Every structure is written in structure tokens, then in C-alpha cells.
Amino acid sequence: MAGIYIHIPFCKQACSYCDFYFTTHLLNKQDFLDALIKEIESRKAYLEGQPIATLYFGGGTPSQLSTKELQTVIEAVRSHYSVIENAEITVESNPDDLTEEYLQQLFNIGVNRLSIGIQSFKNEDLELMNRAHNSEEAKTCVALARKSGFKNISIDLIYGLPNATLEDWKTNIDQALQLDTEHVSAYNLTIEKGTPLAHSVTKGRVTIPSDHEIVLQHNLLVELLAEGGLEHYETSNFAKKSFRSKHNSSYWKGTHYAGVGPSAHSFNGISRSWNISNTKKYVELIEQGKSHFETETLSLIDRINEFILTGLRTAEGIDLVHFESYFGKKALSNLLLESQESLSKGLLEKKQHRLIVSVRGKVLLDGITADLFFEE
Length: 376
What we know:
Number of helices: 14
Helix content: 40-55%
Low-confidence stretches: none
Distance between the termini: 31 Å
Oligomer: single chain
Order of helices and strands: EHEHEHEHHEHEHHEEHEEEHEHEHHEEH
Strand content: 15-25%
Structural class: alpha/beta
Shape: globular
Number of domains: 2
CATH topology of the largest domain: TIM Barrel
Number of strands: 15
CATH superfamily of the largest domain: Aldolase class I
Largest sheet: 9 strands, mixed
CATH architecture of the largest domain: Alpha-Beta Barrel
CATH class of the largest domain: Alpha Beta
């Protein structure tokens, strides 16, 4: 089984914290769609005929496309790939785009999972992030989606926001739990260089929480979502039983996927490729039949470190049996040796044939992972 990721770069406006590739210019949208469909066809050999189990529209803001445009893309995938019955089809969306009519049309074209970028239920936060929606739209969009037939809904939240207290964050979590969605993705705000938010922080216009405050917010999130019946199955992701994101889970399991659209990444187990991060050039290169991506062949060390990185992000951790079968006894011995310090500190746990990050270790995941990485 494999997956396909489709990057839709269009956004209504620029969020102050975002450094993903996007554009607010929609004038050449049809040219982009034509190029996208050509790439879908041209990349079909990359997955070597593997059945497609997941299709994920990310961005950008995929809900900036009409449902007719999205349907055209879905049909192009179905015409060139073997898509399994009941494949997971996810569309990232913003609350302000989710009218009752749009939601019903999404459901009717076969979209069966929504990922809604709520980020916060507080208007002051949304204004600071330059989000296009307001608190009321954040609260009502899920009910509209339910009315349209959606039974698999995820919402995104951000913690560590400037000027936000622990009580503010608790209010956000409580609001999320009241919506009773099947999935929650929660991310610690990263101040990315070059973004408007980074400029505001540098100028002292806003204050970001301390590391200690962020740890408290993270721990509160884990505690309250667990009480609400959501499993913490990956570093930033929580789900009710049987509602883990199949597409994102495939990334952490090393499943092969093809990425189409500007800035999209692809992975086939041996190599990784990434498309040019420029919509205009992306369209031009595809129209001219020229290469629009770069490729990197992964070394053995790269593949080992990727296995460690992705494994530790999940609730299941690193499967040591699989690790040995893929990389050999010597590599396994080295991994176990390097893990001893984190094990002794209670940051890692060894359960049967798995190496798992402990509850204490979750907030220190980056450091734990770095300590386990192999060197050339």
C-alpha cells in the first residue's frame, strides 16, 4: 500500500507564523491544475503499481479550490493509480471556507476525512496569527461538517502562543473536547526565521512563553485529551480508537508515497525527492517537460536515522525486531548501547521488543532522538 500527497499552495492570506510554501495569488489557478494533473500521470511509475490507500490534500489551503476542481484531481488519481475501496481521502481546510454547501459537496465527491485548521478558539490569538476565520466560525464548522455527513474530523491546535497563559490553553483544550472530534493535532508554535511573527518577537512586540510554560501546556494537553478518550499515538497527534490518521501514520511507518504539487516531497524507501517551491516555475517546467524536482539517494545511515526518528514519534516506538532485520545485529547493538543513558534516566522504556519514549521523555524527544542517531 502507498499514499499520495497533493500540495495546494493557495491561501486567502498569509498567517504570521507560517513558513510552508504558499501563495496568495490565485490568478493562474487553472494553469496550476493542468500542471498538477500532468504530474499525477507522470509520477505513476514512482510507486511501482502499489495500491493507493490514502490521498491527502495539504497546503497552503486546499479548501481554496472549488469542489469541482478537487473532484477533477481525485478523478485524475483514480484514472492513473489503483485506489483501494474506502481509501482515506483527507482535505485540509480552514473554518471560514466551510459553508454548509461546500461541505456537502466535499462529502458528495468522496472526501471522507477533514483536517480543519482551527489553531485557537480565541479571537485575539487568531488576529495575532492573521488567520482568516474567527472564534465563532471555529466553533460552528464542525457541526456543519457533521450535518453534511462527515464522521472522521480532525482539528489543529497550536500551543505556546504569544501572550497565552496556561488557563488560556486549558480553555482551548476544553473547547476542542466539546466539539468531540475523532482526532486532534496539536503543535508547539515554532518561531520561524523570516516570518512576520518572528519579526514581532525580535522587536519585543509580543512575548512567547518560557520553555517551562510550554512544558506545562504540553503536559496539560496530554492529560486532558487522555481523559477525553483520545490516544496520544504520535508526538503531535491524538485520536479516538480506530481514527488515527492513516496517511500521516504511513509517513512514520516508512510507507512509500508520491508527492505532487510545488514543494511536495516523495519517498520510495531508497530515495527522497522534492518539488520546486515556486508555483510559476513548477507550471512552466511541467509544461516544458523538464525536471521540476531534485532527488537524494539515502545512505544506509540516512535510512537508519530515519527509522529511529519516525519510530520514536509513535506510541509503538522503535520495533527492534524490524530494526535488526533491516539493518543487522551490529546496528541493533549500537542502538541499544546508545539508548542506555536515556533508559537509565527514564526517558526511554524498553518493552518486549520495542524502544519507546516515556511520558517524561516526550517533551525532550528531539534531544533523545539526536543522541541515538548514527554517524557516518
